Amino acid sequence: MSYVIPTPAEAVLPVVGQAAVFPVRRIYCVGRNYAEHAREMGADPDREPPFFFTKPRDAIVAEGGEMPYPPATENLHYEMELVVAIGTGGKNIAEPDALGHVYGYAAGLDMTRRDLQGVAKKMGRPWDMGKGFDHSAPCSALRAAADIGHPHSGAIWLKVNNSLKQAGDLSQQIWSVPETISFLSNLVELAPGDLIFTGTPAGVGPVVAGDRLEGHVDGIGDIEVTII
């Protein structure tokens, strides 16, 4: 097949211990999935149904590294998250079957232009330009579930310039990974290559050019990003 314009570069993530890479299809993100983060954002942490937003797949910054400070914002925030990689697609997935659809896991950052997001919230507009901008999804290499299992607890934290900013536990998620996959698959058909960013603990805050971010998820790995 020929194309009338150059084809876009494939968005991929490396996989620990393998030469083959994971192709990224779509990026889904769960909003306010930790109670303390919901509170700090001024929301009710009661267990309401999960909601989702998306990022373009080429927002991936594979294995961290350098992230340019984005335009049109004066309030760039970090959000440290567990990332789920879908290996087997499906729709209307039952919760007990959900983990069978997971290929693996990574540590990721949902970078956010908080000022643009705030304006969108107040005006009842979509969050796209606050969340789905270039380089807004730094992500570590994947660890295959076949190698590490399916973590349901463990520390998740983020440091900025060696100062601890976020610290939580995966067990504090309002919606577990199986619940999230099941719910999302009733809204859209999931497919191999989909990523799900599963929400962030409390402690989000701003970064500026020159800041160094170090994130960690127990059993999954680490990610380091420098804002340039």
TrEMBL record:
Q: Name one Pfam family in it.
A: FAA_hydrolase
Keyword Hydrolase in the entry? The reply is yes
Q: Which residues form the Fumarylacetoacetase-like C-terminal domain?
A: 27-227
Q: Which segments does the entry list as coiled coil?
A: none
Gene3D superfamilies hit by this protein: Fumarylacetoacetase-like, C-terminal domain
**GO MF, one annotated term:** acetylpyruvate hydrolase activity
Classification via InterPro entries:
Fumarylacetoacetase-like_C, Fumarylacetoacetase_C_sf
Q: Does the keyword Metal-binding apply?
A: yes
Q: Which UniProt keywords apply?
A: Hydrolase, Metal-binding
User: What name has this protein been given in UniProt?
Assistant: Fumarylacetoacetate hydrolase family protein
From what organism does this protein derive?
A: Denitrobaculum tricleocarpae
